[in-house]
Amino acid sequence: MIQRLYDWTMSLAQSPHALWALAFIAFIESSVFPIPPDILMIPLIIAMPKRAFLIAGIATAASVLGGIAGYLIGAFAFDTIGQPILAALGKEHAMEGFNQKFNDFGFWPVLIAGITPFPYKVITIMSGWSGLPFMTFLITSIIARGIRFFLIAWLLWKFGDPIRHFIEKRLGLMFTLFIVILLAGFFAVKLM
After folding, report:
1. HSE of 72 in the Cβ direction (CA atoms, 13 Å)?
2. What is the pTM (predicted TM-score) of this model?
C-alpha cells in the first residue's frame, strides 16, 4: 500500500495542478498521511528551479496548517475518546505524568520532529493531546518546517539534480546528527 501511495504522490509532480497537490500532501502528511511532501517537492523543484522558494513556501505553509489540524486532533480526540478509556483502566494519572514530561521539553519535540525524518504527524497530535501551549507549537512548527523545506529548496536550486541523491538518502541523517550534537552541547553546558 505504501508503494502505491508513493507512486501516486510522485505522479502528482506531472500534474498541471502540482503546486495544489503539494499543498494537499504537505497538509495531510502533518496529521495522517504516511508519505512526506519532500517526495513531491524534489521533482517539482528540479523541474522548476526558479520557483524553488515558492515551492518551499507552499510546503511550509501547508505543513504548518496540517500540523494545526494534527494538534486539534490530539486536543479533541483525546478528550472525547482517549480519556474515558484511560479512566476506565485507572490510568488517567499516568497520562498526566507523561503530559508533564512531554511539555517540560517545551519546543524540542516539535523542532526535532519538524526537521528530522521522525514522523511530524506523531508530534502534532501529541502536542495537542499533552496540552503543549499552542503558540509554542505554532512558532516551533513554522521554524522547523521552514528549515527543512527551504534547505531542500536551496540545495536543489544551488546544485540541481546532482544533489538529489544526497537529499533523498542522507539529508534526514544529517538533520538527525545535527540535532543530536546540538542537544549534547546543551546538556554539556548545563552540566558545567
Report:
1. 6
2. 0.78
Distance in angstroms (rounded) separating the CA atoms of residues 132 and 106: 7
Which of 138, 149, 119, 150 lies closest to 69, judged by CA? 138
Rounded CA separation 158/50 (Å)? 10
Parent domain of 20? 2-191
Q: Mind listing the pLDDT tens digit for each residue in 6-34?
A: 666 667 777 788 899 899 999 998 887 77
Number of domains in the chain: 1
- Selection from 120, 147, 107 nearest residue 30 by Cα: 120
